[in-house]
Design a protein that fits this description.
The protein is an all-alpha fold and about 130 residues long. About 85% of the residues lie in helices and about 0% in strands. The radius of gyration is 18 Å and the shape is globular.
């Protein structure tokens, strides 16, 4: 790999790391704020973060295209919004498939993402409980 490519990759990696640290920190603070305002129980903090992150992803995708800011994608989309909530990336992929007319693929993507992720979490719980029981 040429040195120029490595330099660009390292710069992008730095942007992703910086954005991720900021996004994850903000997710933590929003979560604390929502729990303090509304209490525990139903996971409103997670829903709040997922909805805000998905909204911001939609705004940024259009703004980046219109204003020539696509070079900020590693910082904003992968880093900040990825650290804030990966749900925004999931939402963008689902809507992109739908907008391309691939409704079956979009539905399959949503069903598999949710179903397999929940199934993997359950499997992880069962294995870890078996190991640490």
């Amino acid at each position: 790999m040429p040195a120029r490519d490595c330099t660009g990759m390292l710069a992008n990696l730095s942007y992703v790391a910086l954005g991720g640290a900021i996004g994850a920190s903000l997710r933590y603070l929003v979560g604390i704020g929502v729990v303090r305002m509304l209490g525990h129980g139903f996971p409103l903090a997670i829903i709040t973060v997922n909805v805000i992150g998905s909204f911001l992803m939609g705004v940024f995708v259009v703004m980046a295209e219109q204003r020539g800011l696509t070079h900020l994608r590693p910082l904003v989309m992968t880093g900040f919004l990825g650290g804030f909530t990966t749900f925004s990336a999931f939402s963008l992929e689902a809507v992109t498939l739908f907008e391309r007319g691939e409704t079956t693929q979009a539905a399959l993507y949503v069903a598999l993402s949710v179903g397999l992720s929940i199934g993997a979490l359950i499997l992880g719980l069962l294995i870890a409980r078996g190991i640490y029981a």
